[in-house]
């Protein structure tokens, strides 16, 4: 760590993020063709279904590979998404004034992920599990599953499609375009952020990193 920058995300995390995000974009676009009747003509030769299934395979396999390669970091990350405390509740109360008015005074010091990022990560895990379970039934048990079960799988798949799609566009806006998140994109592109940005947006994490002989967060 230098005086100017700190390492926020190591390379394996960034690779996981970009490959998994790419798979999601493929799934979203090809799923949109199936979700909107007016676009059904694009799927007439079933090529969108093939691409959708390839994207689904990548969506499933990449996180499993990361789990095998770096199990401790994977478990720690999942635990982080499901661990909420008083500071997170304080963040939720202060978030509207922070994001809409730029008021940072009430925001509590954040860890390596702020509470909004934890919420995104939580929804990513939950929606991902639902996507995978319902998708596998629709893919491999379409003819064998009871009609009622298949209809429920299709319904749940559609619900998480809407939720995940909305959250994805919000995530994209906050990570790339929001005036306060000036280095969010840089963090995932290069793995590093400035020390000043780290103190302002991840003060609790920055203090922990400084005290632990500059070990980067995963």
Q: What does this 3D model show about the protein?
A:
With 218 residues, the protein is an all-alpha fold. The chain has one domain (5-211): Transmembrane di-heme cytochromes, Chain C (Fumarate Reductase Cytochrome B subunit). Helices cover 71% and strands 3% of the residues. The chain has helices at residues 11-35, 47-69, 71-81, 86-101, 115-140, 147-177, 184-190, 195-201, 203-211; strands spanning 5-7, 192-194. Strands 1-2 form a two-stranded antiparallel sheet. Helix 5 (115-140) runs antiparallel to helix 6. The protein is elongated and about 55 Å long. The two termini are 14 Å apart.
Side-by-side strand order of the widest sheet: 1-2
**What portion of the residues fall into strands of 2 or more residues?**
under 5%
Query: Level of helix content?
Result: over 70%
Q: Tell me, what is the CATH class?
A: Mainly Alpha
* Rg measurement, Å: 20 Å
Global mean pLDDT: 89
Q: What is the chain-wise order of helices and strands?
A: EHHHHHHHEHH
In this structure, how is the largest beta sheet organized? 2 strands, antiparallel
Structural class: mainly alpha
CATH topology grouping: Fumarate Reductase Cytochrome B subunit
Distance between the termini: 14 Å
Low-confidence stretches: none
Q: Per the principal axes of the C-alpha atoms, what is the gross shape?
A: elongated
- Give the number of helices: 9
Instruction: Tell how many strands the DSSP assignment holds.
Output: 2
């Amino acid at each position: 760590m230098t005086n100017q920058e700190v390492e926020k995300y190591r390379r394996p995390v960034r690779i996981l993020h970009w490959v998994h995000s790419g798979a999601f974009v493929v799934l979203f676009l090809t799923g949109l063709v199936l979700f909107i009747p007016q676009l059904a003509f694009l799927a007439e030769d079933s090529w969108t279904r093939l691409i959708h299934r390839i994207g689904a395979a990548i969506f499933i396999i990449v996180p499993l590979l990361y789990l095998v390669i770096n199990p401790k970091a994977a478990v720690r990350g999942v635990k982080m998404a499901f661990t909420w405390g008083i500071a997170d509740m304080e963040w939720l109360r202060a978030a509207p004034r922070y994001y809409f008015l730029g008021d940072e005074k009430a925001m509590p010091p954040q860890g390596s992920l702020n509470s909004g990022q934890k919420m995104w990560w939580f929804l990513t895990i939950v929606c991902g599990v639902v996507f995978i379970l319902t998708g596998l039934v629709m893919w491999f048990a379409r003819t064998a599953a009871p009609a009622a079960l298949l209809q429920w799988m299709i319904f749940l798949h559609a619900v998480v499609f809407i939720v995940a799609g909305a959250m994805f566009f919000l995530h994209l806006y906050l990570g790339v375009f929001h005036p306060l998140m000036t280095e969010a994109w840089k963090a995932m592109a290069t793995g590093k952020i400035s020390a000043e940005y780290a103190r302002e947006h991840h003060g609790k994490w920055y203090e922990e990193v400084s005290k632990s002989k500059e070990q980067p967060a995963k």
